[in-house]
Known about the structure:
Order of helices and strands: EEHHEHHEHHEHEHHEHEHEEHEHHH
Radius of gyration: 23 Å
Strand content: 5-15%
Number of strands: 11
Strand order of the largest sheet: 1-8-7-6-5
Distance between the termini: 41 Å
Number of helices: 15
Amino acid sequence: MRWRTDIILARDYDFGERGDVDMFPEHFLWGGAVSANQCEGAFDEEGKGISIQDVLPKGLKGGMTEEPVKENLKLKGIDFYHRYKEDLKMMAEMGFKVFRTSIAWSRIFPRGDEEKPNQKGIEFYHNLFAECRKYGIEPLVTLSHYETPLYLAEKYDGWRSRKMIDFYKTYVKAVFEEYKDEVKVGGGNVVDKEGFMYLVEAGADFVKVGIGGGSICITREQKGIGRGQATALIEVCQARQEYFEKTGIYIPICSDGGLVHDYHMVLALAMGADFLMMGRYFARFDESPTKKLSMGNTYVKEYWGEGSNRAQNWQRYDMGGKESLKFEEGVDSYVPYAGKLKDNLNVTLGKIKATMCSCGSITIPQLQETAKITLVSSTSIVEGGAHDVILKETKI
């Protein structure tokens, strides 16, 4: 498994070796994404149990059926379970380097509360990941994509029961043990040394840092959970260094949240991050699938969080009961429209390159060695921009 295509893998990108910024870094991963319940089909074959998606033909808003019905297109999907080899061959012909899918919990543990997994399900994903490797495609895998076994939902009332935690741990342990040599595992999000150590000792190959710092996240405001992104990143990266010195194992770190300006990216990298989550950055461009709208004298793009009512990601954020969120942890918003990705990326990479050179470095590891992080006052921030002058309008 590698990281999603909405992030730039920056650590090994040597800006000093390349004169052109029109190109993405050679390690940038292009690919596509599906989920098990969308594409696999074979909903009742080779020991698979019924999942909640098998009785939600129209999703959450359409209500549940008593049993799977033929109107539910997810029961067959694109028949990926039987045709994955030819599908992956076509992906390889298109130049895919990464393929994101999910593991169907009910294919591994049909009811969800068994002690031993379904071997036919285990074998399917072994074969799937091997086929990906055959074509040089990195499998990017999510543990569960909204497909809890129906038996657990009916018998235990789903996630309202604390017994679900043990069932999920059994599932996760089985998956990790089976595919640990085939798929890299990322964990998060954490904000301190304790959280970092918990994840790496559990086998995480990389760790995401950040809670409540995203532009559309209101977790801190709603629950008081989280930490300043810089403080969290510095502590976790220090813990990563201590772990490396002790074990010789280097754990890549992703900084997730808190990036507003381009120079914030350099700050995160200088503090020790290896790669960055940049949802807001990419949401502004033509390539983002959301609508471009006119508001007043400007254009904007829609942008919302998973914890918002619009996203209706109730399986992750709801607390049970009625089919609605008790409270939101994300907002429904707009971001300023910024045009084409290529044009903006050139400018961003130019700024990063210039900042790195000012710090006497041409690679990310050098930046982390040479950059000095200092605490600044509010007055310093003001004087860092234009002040005490009347600005002229400019098109640059």
